[in-house]
Amino acid sequence: MVQESGVEIWKNSLVAMRTSLASSYDMSTAVEEQRRFLKAWEGNGLEYIVFSDYRRNEGKRRLSDILEIIDYAIERIDRCDIRAASLLYLETLDEVALFSNWAKILERTGERSGS
Are 74 and 15 in contact (CB under 8 A)? Predict the structure, then answer.
């Protein structure tokens, strides 16, 4: 019973993390696109095009990679004992955090270089 509840809690946490990441990405992209679109409307459209291209291609690909990590853990966690499920959960959190940090670094680098 304790094992099932722990595994279910970790699984539900991963599902919630996945949903939150996807929703946050979509919302922040829409807000930033709107902001840049309005700025482009005033005469500087290149920034909007570059941002939109990145977020819809490279950014979405990076998000998909993070979501795949979470999906893989969700799929495997039910087949683990409590100790292995705990380790899988913690490893997934570490991987998602690392991948998210790298994505932020790449985005900031891209913005500074003008691409």
Answer: yes
Contact 46, 115 (CB under 8 A): no
Q: How far is CA 50 from CA 29, 86, 110, in A?
A: 13, 41, 10
Does the pLDDT value for residue 92 go beyond 50? yes
| Closest by Cα among 16, 58, 53 to 33 | 53
Q: How many CA atoms lie within 13 A of 86 on its CB side?
A: 7
Our measurement of the distance from residue 23's CA atom to the centroid of its chain's CA atoms, rounded to an integer in Å, reads: 9
Token pair belonging to 39: 């700025």
Give the model confidence (pLDDT) of 4-29 as tens digits.
588 899 999 999 999 999 999 889 88
DSSP summary character for residue 68: H
Nearest to 96 by CA among 68, 66, 71: 66
